[in-house]
Amino acid sequence: MKLTSFVQDRQLTIALTGEIDHHSAKEIMDTVSDKIDVYMPLRCILDFRDVRFMDSSGIAVVLHALRRMNMLQGRLLLQNIPAQPYKVLRAAGIEKITEIKEECPK
Amino acid sequence: MKGENYMNLEFPSKSANEAFARAAVACFAAQLDPTLDELGDIKTAVSEAVTNCIVHAYPDELGPVILKARILPDNVLDLVVKDRGRGIENIEQARTPMFTTGGDDRSGMGITIMESFMTEFHLSSTPGKGTTVHMKRKIVRRGGKK
After folding, report:
1. What gap in Å lies between CA B54 and CA A52, rounded to an integer?
2. Catalytically annotated residue among B52, B70, B92, B115
3. Is the pTM of this model over 0.90?
């Protein structure tokens, strides 16, 4: 899994790519946690633009990042979520516990 | 549509096979001319079912995962995902959203997602013998006559 990220004004943006399933989730989770721990952002943005598939393992990735950001008293935002991952996130009610900036246009 | 079509697969419970399983079913389902949304739902449900075999049926060893897909009349995709693993002690508990025995890296949403994304969902399990998930998804016919 290739993850690109950048930091600006204590805002960390992480671009997730490819397919998020149980096979890939642990590594993504660990990488996201590591980046949050290193940069200690006030806002962390997970960008889903290049996620081609996601199952419920992705929900765990988001919850993990959310717990991390809560510990830092920061905020987690999700953005550019394509339709398929969005449906999975919605099934778990993620929109009630994190901020979703915008959905990906189809 | 002439006669019914089917396919059977068996593979070991390695997590690398999650992507293979959902891609194989997506290719098989393509003959029903699903929309991207329908295909996404089917791939998600297959991914959840196969992941459950890997995480829960065979937590400490590899075992066989059997995947069967059939096309039924009226544009219905019929899927069976079966393992010979340790089975589920308490199905009601397993069905509860956010409940998991899988630890911190599992969301506990797998069964909920399969139930809500598929038209029909049936789970049967015998502790010590294995678990079978049976799901159906009707694919809406679009456009002109086929």
Report:
1. 22
2. B52
3. yes
